[in-house]
Amino acid sequence: MRDTEADRAARILREGGLVAFPTETVYGLGADAENTSAVERVFEVKGRPPGHPLIVHLPHAGALGAWASELPEAAGLLAERFWPGPLTLIVHRADRIPDAVTGDLDTVAIRVPDHPLALAMLEAFGGGVAAPSANRFGSVSPTTAEHVREDLSDEVDLILDGGPCRVGVESTIVDLTSADPQILRPGGVTPEELEQALERPIGISGEGGPPAPGRLPSHYAPSAAVAVVPRAEVARRASEEAAAGRRVGVLAVDPPPALPAGIAVLTLPPDAAASARELYATLRDADRRGLDLIVTSLPAETGLGYAVADRLRKAGAVREVR
Ligand code: TXA
Ligand code: MG
User: Fold this and answer.
1) How far is the centre of ligand 2, averaged over its atoms, from the C-alpha of 248 (Å)?
2) Measured in angstroms, how far is the CA atom of residue 12 from the centroid of ligand 1?
């Protein structure tokens, strides 16, 4: 019988290789989570500094118990409600997990992705797959197999093509290791959905905590600088920057009508979920056009708009003052 793509991927993982695979959020760069040298290769290929912990991907919620040393009630509740789906849970780790995966923390990040090809690969493999987003460190996450090829094609043993990602921004990370669940990174599951499931308000963690690339201000940034300004100032700022000789693009749901010639217009759809889906491809497009600066304003921070605003803010932080 002929191997399926998922079987091939599972075999490569068992042999210590790297497989890029689609999820509903972004493409991941996967390695056997229990193979330290394979996990170390993920860091090398991504150009990611060691010590940044990875998410372990599992085929179903039933596997969670084997990877955690204790499970708070909220873990079962959230897993039941949102898995497979764009939610990552931080729990106390089981001993079997190599330090390379957790960055020496006593906690681990776990999720069950909602993509048929990812789930088929995980089922065929049987273990946990440690995977960060399949981009080079510090660049925009890939939402198509083509994006992965652009960034990493030579160094990955297999790239599974599952089409464009349905959600388009990374999973929401929720820390369940203290009494009150906290959002560490906004993502595909909204704060409103989490509060509804938990039947109580959920906090958003500020500074402090473990090093997390998703929490570095300059993460998720395209090569172009990003200036986040109030909506009413987008046109003026873009015009000034263009007049100063910079290659400028305006990123907006409703770009101002009267922009000087030469300013690129990058339009996002009005629907927040559609905006999230297209955001990273649009930022990659800005780089392809060789823009120096993207001028944008933040969308309404409800639903998926919260994650979109978070990524734009992080893309704008640091680089704007450069
Ligand atoms: O949607 C996603 O989550 C994608 C797909 C591929 O699953 N993955 C992803 O991985 O975004 P990555 O490595 O780009 O981001 C993982 C985030 C980082 O911010 C990391 O610091 C955080 O998860 N993280 C991992 N383990 C952690 C832990 N034990 N405590 C706190 N944060 C942790
Ligand atoms: Mg990433």
Assistant:
1) 26
2) 23
